[in-house]
Amino acid sequence: MNYSTLKKTVALSVVSLMALGAAKAQTSTDTTKTVSSATSSAKVFGGLGQYNHISIGINAGMLSNQIPFGPNTTSHFSPSFGYGASIRDAFSHFFSLSLDYVGGTVKGDNQGLSKFGGLDYKTSTNSIALTALVNFGSVSFLHRENAVNFYGDAGYGLDFYKPKFDLAGGTEKAYANIYDNTVKEAVFPVGVGVKFKLSDALALNVGYKIAFIPGYNFTGYHTYPQQDHYSYSYAGLEYTFGSSSKKNIDWVNPIATLYDELYDAALRQEVEALKGRVTNVETAVADLKKDSDGDGVSDQFDKCPNTPAGSVVDGSGCVIVFPKDTTKKDSVKAAPYSNIQFEFDSSVLRTSSYPVLDATSADLRATGKTLTVAGYASSEGTAAHNLRLSKDRANSVKTYLVNSGVDAKHLKIKAFGETHPIADNSTEEGRVANRRVEFHQ
């Protein structure tokens, strides 16, 4: 294919891509004209399927034997025409993989002065490389949508090239003296570029890349120890395939998407509804805990509201009337202080017992009496367990009284376990009454 035919092909391809992009842009406008970018259905963690992410591109530009940095194999800048194509798949807003092709003829010229044994060369090249592309323009805190994206890329592939060169005497030769011989060598393309949005599907792509070839034969004559390279400056069009109802991932700003998710009207309504439900639960819990008469039984379960302070009540909040204990086998008698009641299998003082304990403490501090703090338990559990439990209950009462100012030597501890019940352990009311501490003189 000669240059004239090639240029016509490239021009036709460019026009075709522009027409295709314009058609898609028109379709997108017709079908989504009532939907703005601010109301896009895209979600930050909605997956790749919500975007159009596969694209093809064509480009053309200038191949050069020289790069801006490092030594070059020839001393004179000799540009020539190059062309390329690509197919790319974006895996996120930031990262893509692209299969790139670059072709053309690279020229070198030493302006009549021999370098590495040759004067000038012409090398036809065809390279194919898998390139990783990182997009630097997706995230923006200033604009909802992107219209310009900067990127960098690097890859690995193979370069198939045929070098021809002139010797110092002016004789043109081919590599290894065989004009049809093609050299296959690794190539490492590295580049930067900028992409301009023409429509959601079509973009203008401008870039510059350097192809590093880890060899010494690209010029035809041996350039050891200097390895070969060439550069490609290009501009082209890139078209992204997909449904017009989806956005091109290249132009979606994830910051704007995140903002829309956080301030989505439906989501905010759900949050407010959830707050209301939490408030209702908190109110219900507060009602369950409410105890107006301070007897330790919440109002919702208190069958005897407004019991006097210090009253000993059962599980329904009603005052317990203790029968006279005729079964005691010990010689002690009950003191004129109210019993302290406890919950099942617990030695923790109930708040309803504090008034009784405070009155007992005041009397003991005033009179200097010595009392025996006697602990008891209901009949649930083993006798050994109930004996320990009754001792713990007696110690809880003693600790409270000592902390309130009663001299510890005026308080003695005695544990009776489940013995000496004051009520029938076969009923719940009786067991409630038996979970107690008494004061004996």
Give structural notes.
With 441 residues, the protein is an alpha+beta fold. It folds into two domains: 3-262, Porin; 340-440, OmpA-like domain (60s Ribosomal Protein L30, Chain: A, 2-Layer Sandwich). Helix content is 24%, strand content 32%. It has six helices and 15 strands. The protein has helices spanning 3-32, 254-262, 265-289, 354-367, 383-403, 428-434, and strands spanning 51-52, 54-64, 80-90, 95-109, 118-135, 148-167, 172-174, 183-197, 202-213, 228-240, 247-248, 340-341, 371-375, 411-415, 436-440. The protein has an eight-stranded antiparallel β-barrel with strand order 2-3-4-5-6-8-9-10. Strands 12-15-13-14 form a four-stranded mixed sheet. Helix 4 crosses helix 5. The longest helix is centred in the first third of the chain and has 30 residues, at 3-32. The radius of gyration is 46 Å and the shape is rod-shaped. It starts with a helix and ends with a strand. Residues 1-39 and 324-334 have low confidence and may be disordered.
